[in-house]
Amino acid sequence: MEKIVFHCKQQPLVPLGTLLTTGAVILAAKNVRGGNKLKAQIYFRWRVGLQAATLVALIAGSYVYGSAVQQQKSKEEQMREKAKVREQLWIQELERRDKETHYRKKRAELVRMRAQEDEEAIARLQKELKDLEIQIRGQAD
Q1: Is 39 exposed, middle or buried (0-12, 13-18, 19+ CB in 10 A)?
Q2: What's the CA gap between 56 and 50, in Å, rounded?
Q3: CA distance 30 to 74
Q4: Distance (Å, rounded) from C-alpha 40 to C-alpha 60?
Q5: What is the pLDDT of residue 69?
Q6: Global pTM?
Q7: Structural domain tally of the chain?
Q8: Containing domain of residue 26, as a range?
Q9: Which of 24, 90, 115, 127 could form a disulfide with 47 if both were Cys (CB 3.0 to 4.6 A apart)?
Q10: Strand, helix or coil for residue 35
């Protein structure tokens, strides 16, 4: 039932044409039984015309609906492409951040090594200074 309602909303002229065609057939049958062949002939002609109009509405609706489905698919494809681009940009951003973090860690390690070397140099210089002070005191005595 839901499918019928969906298709009726999608192509409203087809059910309308079907009902009108059915009405023309019923009126033609009544006039045949009643003996009025002229009116029956007119209603049968209306039936043929309404059937043709219903068929045209069906074909036109299918064409319009088909292009709408195509547009919907192209929109979905655009959304997928956009999502892929976003994903690629996010991956590139993560890689950039990873490189930056790696660079900062290397820099921090180099700074630590330089600081340690400087501390060792300071310790050596202080030791040399103490040794020299001891030598100077030893010579002064």
Answers
A1: middle
A2: 10
A3: 51
A4: 30
A5: 64
A6: 0.45
A7: 1
A8: 2-140
A9: 24
A10: coil
Whole-angstrom Cα Rg for the chain = 46
Amino acid residing at 70: Q
Tokens 């039932």 -> residue: 1
Q: Which residues contact 54 (CB under 8 A, 6 or more apart)?
A: 13, 14, 17, 18, 20, 21
Q: Can you give the pLDDT of all 141 residues of the chain as single tens digits?
A: 888 777 777 777 888 888 899 999 999 999 999 998 899 999 999 999 999 998 998 888 878 777 666 777 788 888 899 999 999 999 999 999 999 999 999 999 999 999 999 999 999 999 999 988 888 888 766
What DSSP designation does 11 have?
S
